[in-house]
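help with this.
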Amino acid sequence: MLPLNREFSHVARSMTRDLLGYISHDDFISFAGGAPDPTLMDASGITECVRTVLDDSGPDVFQYSVTEGEPELRQAMAREMQRRHLPARADNILISTGSQEILFLLARVIINPGDTVLVEAPTYPAAIQAFTMVGARVIPVPCDDNGIIPSELERALRDYDPVITYLIPVFQNPTGRSMSERRKDEVRRVLAGHRSLLVEDDAYSPLAFDGNAREPLCHTYESESGAVYLASLSKFLSPAFRIGAALIPDWLLQPMVVAKQVSTLHGSVIDQRAAALWLDRVEPDGVSSRDRALDTMRATYQARCNALRTQLLDIVPDGTHITDPDGGMFVWIDFPEELRPQVNTLSLIDDAIEHEIAFVPGTEFFPHDSQPTSVYRNVERKDSTTIDADTKLEGQLSIRFSFAGNSIPVMRTGMERFATVLQNALR
């Protein structure tokens, strides 16, 4: 048996993905995944667009295509980014198999083993995986309710000279927080003085409860390396299409195209053309399919978010902090330090699964492999998630809950089960 690649051996499994194996039971309630509610998607409109592509296209729809993406989808994604106040041009857009592929390609193109990447603390775990796989040292930078703290970012940029700074400024995964406009200005000023490439992940901004577009961090941003802006259709068209898009600076575009050629050649022609049709589709009453689907999702998710927070406030002990997002899919809770070691959210998973409920412990959202005190890779995911109660891990007192996938009555049942799990831990 051959040994695995050294860098790959440091990549932790995704607990969020592992938990999918438990949720096939009808009575199981999951708050774990970052998936949209499929009942809110425009199934009829999407179906019509797929049929139109198959019926009206020539034989080239079944053929190989260009790596950069179908021209009509690149144009549609440029318009989507322009809605978000970005001066996007189709020529600088690369279509990807989900925005996750862009993170993987960036890691391959930019990072050498031993290079440093800065991320928010906490951050999206699959980004940690992508950067760790190529041997990067991933450094979490402290945040507050307004996002990454500029003074801490300045210190990390100075101390580590990172090649990439990866940020989720709007409805952040996992916390749901958004940077204030003042904070964005401060972060732009700090980053502009360094060579680090800004990678802005903006999967959630279309889900703003008030429907107003949030200005991206990379808007008006100028620096030596520039910025890569990531967008996704997974949260409001369908994750099954696996379509992401990146706005890439001129100097980096062709290397990224070559990397995608090596990786997947190109994305699905049928899916890309159908997605482009759907983004521009107007229904008989004059409302676009995109806007109607998003209006439904925003209203539903806002009601679910409010219901989940209300239920959590009735359950958690005094001193627990619960984020109050105004968009996206997630709520983040931090238990007070004095509850350690009674509340070890990584260990709570065993009891939670016994009660047919799932959530994601906060430890999943920190790059523990970059910390010498970590035992993260030694945690057994399926049969036992217990660790030494004296071992302190970042995120051990935190939980991410998704409010997107369950109706309010189902969430109420799930919260009753969570209350039992929490009471068992606090005895």
